[in-house]
Write a structure and sequence with these properties.
InterPro entries: ComFB (IPR019657)
Number of domains: 1
Protein name: Late competence development ComFB family protein
Strand order of the largest sheet: 1-2
Number of helices: 4
Radius of gyration: 15 Å
Distance between the termini: 38 Å
């Protein structure tokens, strides 16, 4: 199947993971390394362990907001973020 790129494809988990990471790790200053490479690696590792939720419409914005309010989802995301922080702190991928 060939997809037209007229409509954007968005994994709704990306902004959720990014926002929770920002609020719970970046703003609190608890990361051992706060460089952009480590932050991106933490987000990517977390996303790789969470189920994606794709959308391609403007209604997707409402979908993202509704997902973000689910306590179980927030708990799952924070669990994966915590695991990813530990992994990246132990083995940072600095060049």
């Amino acid at each position: 199947m060939i997809f037209s790129r007229d409509l954007p494809i968005l994994n709704a988990m990306e902004p959720i993971v990014g926002n929770l990471f920002e609020d719970n790790y970046v703003k609190t200053g608890i990361l051992k390394c706060d460089c952009e490479k480590c932050r991106i690696d933490i987000i990517l590792l977390s996303l790789n362990h969470l189920s994606p939720h794709y959308t391609s419409s403007q209604a997707g914005e409402a979908y993202v907001k509704a997902l973000y309010l689910e306590p179980q989802l927030q708990s799952d995301v924070l669990r994966e973020l915590t695991k990813a922080v530990k992994v990246i702190e132990e083995r940072p991928n600095h060049t």
